[in-house]
Amino acid sequence: MILALFWLFAVVAIWLPLRLVVYGLFISISFGTLAVVPLEMVGGVTLLPVTILSSIVIVRVVLQADAAAIVDAALNWRHLGVLMAFLVYALLLTVMAPWVFAGAPTMGLNIQQLTPLAPSIGNITQGLYLTNSCVMTLAMFVLMSNGHGRQMCRKGLVIGGVAVVITGIADMATFGSALLDPLRTASYTLLTHAELGGTRRVVGLHPEASGFGYVALSFGSLITLMRPGEGLSRGWRWLGAPVGWSCLLMAALSTSSGALAGLVVLLAVVVFDTIVLLVRGQGGAAAGRLRANLGALTSLAVAAGLVLTVLPNIGANIAEVFDAAVVHKTSTSSFEERLYWNTVSLDGLKATGGLGLGVGSTRASSWFVALASGTGVIGSVLLAVFVSNAVLQPVGQIDFADRLLVGGAKRTLLVSMLPFAGSTTSVDFGLLIAFVFAVMTAIPVASAQSRSGLPARSPSSRHRSKPVAGAQRPTDR
After folding, report:
1. Is 47:35 a contact under the CB 8 Å cutoff?
2. Which helix (H) or strand (E) holds 199?
3. What are φ and ψ of residue 200, in 5° steps?
């Protein structure tokens, strides 16, 4: 029944307004354990809803986009050219490395043991996942290049946050029962009943707490720092704040070490930003951001005071969980096992002379190690250059709501990197990071084109007979 409903939506999504498909895409991120194709039909490979819907969004956006805009975004090094060069290099390496460096030490993807390098199904599946994320960045870039696409993604972000909260609550409410089992059909090892410090870890509809913690933290950080409701109606503004804070609460309830550390970084980012704004004493947009930061910090302090007053023992429980999840994380057997994965993967990298083992050739417990061992020094440098260029790209003169999007994306990249780097075992960076990459690059580019007098190309620009000054045709068809 569940699969039938999903595939009905997937088929109808070919004709639905694009905004509804984008909303569904953000919602699908919360369903990280639902295999939408029976495992026996695809050799045990898990195809998730987000994989299918992201492919549909890519096709819809590309078919509606101006070909010149797509080519410029993909090849211009100031836009996504370096990211696409990284993808091409990674795929070529993935094809050749298992043959050229056959026998190099790797950690098996499905069986966690030392395995000699050889071509495997993992090279195909992980290569496809990485391709999907990079091309999704391109599709999001095109969407974010015009005002209508930005409105679409703002709403999708809030709706996706609601899905995170609902799945987290559903996981807590159904603990000990089998009610969510129809949504947990992936081939992964599911750690849905884990505890830490005597506290049950919330996993939502993800294989384990670290995955749910990363998603909840990312949505919470994006909504809190980007404030997507600023570019929407009052109802969306009122909805955005509680949804963002609820996502952050879900991240804390996951008790994931990465998520807890990310929450600390998020708090530090907000405090630092507030101090800078107070020292500068600027008005206008900066004053609005200062009021929002002070309101958030005040609300957090009041909420913490009320909780500690009503539940005086919770402080000790929180300290115990933080101690177990973060402080003494390195003394656990899980940490030692994951450290071994990294050691083997780096040994494999050395065996290739730094060129890399190929995407999907080895398992690591850190995204940085997975990136280095999978794509080598050249691939790592290419991606680092792209990220640096995106972060340092000048924003220019844009309105307050768009400036919040760009600034929030950059800060979220910093906040989410801790849980992401600590829990991701492959080179693929996923949809949320792809969205962040697109925001950081697309909006400054659109701003620069606007200042130069060039109209920002929208995804549907090929269907316009004549450009209209000061307006852009919606991409939602």
Report:
1. yes
2. strand 199-200
3. -70, 130
Question: pLDDT band for position 199 (50/70/90)?
Answer: low
C-alpha 444, offset from chain centre = 20
Tokens at 110, concatenated: 């499905």
Angle at 384 between CA 374 and CA 138, to 5 degrees: 85
Q: How far apart are the first and last CA of the chain?
A: 28
Burial class (CB in 10 A: 0-12, 13-18, 19+), 220: buried
Sequence length of the chain is: 477
Chain Cα centroid distance, residue 9? 23
How would you label 11-32 residue by residue, b for 16+ Cβ within 10 Å and e otherwise? Answer: eebeebebbebbbbbbbbbbbb
* Full DSSP string of 75-139: H-TTTTHHHHHHHHHHHHHHHHHHHHTTT-EEE-SSS-SEEE----HHHHHHHHHHHHHHHHHHH
Q: Cβ(187)–Cβ(35) under 8 Å?
A: yes
The 10s digit of each residue's pLDDT in 422-442 is 777 789 998 999 999 999 999
Task: Give every CB contact of residue 182 below 8 A, 6+ residues apart in sequence.
Answer: 1, 2
pLDDT tens digits, residue range 226-256?
889 887 888 888 898 889 989 988 988 887 7
Q: What pTM value is reported for the model?
A: 0.86
pLDDT greater than 80 at residue 451: no
Of 14-18, 362-366, 375-379, the poorest mean pLDDT is in: 362-366
Helix H or strand E segment including 1: none
**Residue that is written with structure tokens 């952050």 in the block:** 248
- Helix (H, G, I), strand (E, B), or coil: what is residue 196? strand
Reference 80, options 460, 450, 439; nearest CA is 439
Closest listed residue to residue 118, CA positions, set 105, 96, 99: 99
Task: For residue 58, give the 3-state DSSP assignment.
Answer: helix
Q: Is the pLDDT of residue 461 over 60?
A: no
Sign of CA dihedral 91, 92, 95, 96: negative
The answer, yes or no, to whether residue 84 has pLDDT greater than 70, is yes
